[in-house]
Amino acid sequence: MDKIFIIISSLLALISPVIYAKAILRGDAKPHRTTRIVILLITVLATASLFAQHNTVAIWLAGVSTLQAIVIFALSIKRGMGGWAK
Q1: How far apart are CA 44 and CA 47, in angstroms?
Q2: pTM for the full model?
Q3: What pLDDT, in 10s, does the model give residues 24-57?
Q4: What's the confidence (pLDDT) of residue 85?
Q5: How many Cβ atoms from other residues are within 10 Å of residue 82's Cβ?
């Protein structure tokens, strides 16, 4: 039963960055590069931790989240905002 919820969560996690990426490409959203790099680092560490634990179920959701973070960070480099100010 847990695997079904992980699969559903992974599919939903694949859909959300598509909608956000469209908004970035249209110019409706401007992601902050610093925020996106922090989110990317956190998701990479979470995925690496699950991989090291040989967790075959939850690693898919973490991997999808890492893929999502990579895509949004890549878009934020060209179309996002920069700087370290609040």
Answers
A1: 5
A2: 0.80
A3: 999 999 999 999 999 999 999 999 999 999 988 7
A4: 63
A5: 10
What is the separation, in whole angstroms, between the first and last Cα of the chain? 43
User: Whole-angstrom Cα distance, residue 66 to residue 86?
Assistant: 25
* Residue given tokens 């110019």 in the structure block: 27
Asked whether 72 and 20 are in contact (CB, 8 A), the reply is yes
CA distances from 35 to 39, 48, 50, 57, 84 (A): 6, 20, 23, 28, 9
pLDDT of the residue at 84: 67
Distance from C-alpha of 20 to C-alpha of 24, rounded to nearest angstrom: 6
Could you tell me the two tokens for 18? 């598509």
- Mean per-residue pLDDT over the chain, rounded: 88
